[in-house]
Amino acid sequence: MRKGVLVVGAGVVGLTTALELSNQYGDSLSITLIAKDLPGDVSPLYTSPKAGAHWTSSNSKENKQWQLVTYKRLKQLSEIPESFVVPYPLYQGDIVPEGCEAPPFEEPWYKDLVEDYEFLGSDPKKFPQVANLHVFKSYSISTTLYLVYLLSQCKKNGITIKRHTIASLQEAENFVLANGNKPDVVVNCTGLQYNLLNGCYDPKLVPVKGYVLLIENTLPYQTTFKHPKLTPDAKDGEFLMLFPRAEGGSVLGGIYDRNFTRFDTSIDADYAGRLVTKATTYMPELGRTRDIKVSTHTIGFRPERQGGARIGVDINNRKIVHNYGNGNSGYIESWGAAQSTVDSVAQVLFDNPKL
């Protein structure tokens, strides 16, 4: 009889984990995924559809191997139109206003591992006041459509999908699967909602607010520009990013706000105006400020776990395997983190993880 696995959560982490479980152990497992929110839903704590999502990294990032695994998988997915993963050059650098000194350049850890990496230094015409400019081949992900694609692949692989809300992980352990049995392992991919479950609390898990604009304008490349020092056009936690999407238009952002005081999803006209002004200043190919056509304001709350994502077998209950807390790296680490989670599940069920 096949072992039963219950995956809880249908964000990018839950869907990718369920799919990777079926890819590696589909003949040995009966997999069910349950979630309060499914692709197509809109909810303040359903974070994955609200993400901008492209592949990038930094030297301070942990879990670099997870990110590299994901980069390679995104390359494969970019050959499947239905995935809505598209390759674009990604330009990165530091915004340095006139009269200011650029910070020292530190070569990215991945420069020899990604495709088409090149250090440019600067390109004043294309990106004025941007220093330490470098470029490589990256991938842009249309999040809402990508989640639908992942869900379709889960169904194609025979994974049972059910909309169901649990109040605790103990309730998940007692969930009756399609075969009439309880799960042998529960995989917790609940993100921020973990701390809302009865009997569950992780003091390291905190929400981080993100805010992006979906604009009708587009460019044939992506950008991620940091503010090494705060300037009049940038507040703490803000950066400038733009990446086009396969279905048209672009994502323009962003902010990494750890200091927000409430779960407010109302429009911030001051922030949006500042963001549009920065975009046209440092990416003049977009045109003038009045040329930017904003279609949607998207606000979400990332599940960041201080010290890194929690992935592995629960030390107090071997029937629970966790995968949550990736913060702004949910998509960037998704396939690598899923592999590690699958190894933990295999260790519990078969005492023989597939490495």
TrEMBL record:
Source organism per entry reads: Pichia kudriavzevii (Yeast)
Alphabetically, the GO molecular function entries are:
D-amino-acid oxidase activity; FAD binding
Residue numbers binding FAD:
T47, S48, T190
Q: Where does D-dopa bind?
A: H227, R302
Segment forming the signal sequence: 1-18
The cross-references to SUPFAM superfamilies, in alphabetical order and at most eight, read:
FAD-linked reductases, C-terminal domain, Nucleotide-binding domain
Look up keyword Nucleotide-binding and say if it applies: no
Look up the record and give one Gene Ontology term from the biological process aspect: D-amino acid catabolic process
Q: Name one GO cellular component term.
A: cytoplasm
- Annotated ranges, domain FAD dependent oxidoreductase: 5-342
Q: Which cofactor(s) does the record list?
A: FAD
Highest taxon of the lineage: Eukaryota
Q: Tell me the protein's name.
A: FAD dependent oxidoreductase domain-containing protein
Task: List the InterPro entries hit by this protein, alphabetically.
Answer: DAO, FAD-dep_OxRdtase
Q: Which family does it belong to?
A: Belongs to the DAMOX/DASOX family.
Write out the entry's keywords from A to Z.
FAD, Flavoprotein, Oxidoreductase, Signal
Instruction: Please give the Gene3D superfamilies that the UniProt record associates with this protein.
Output: D-Amino Acid Oxidase, subunit A, domain 2, NAD(P)-binding Rossmann-like Domain
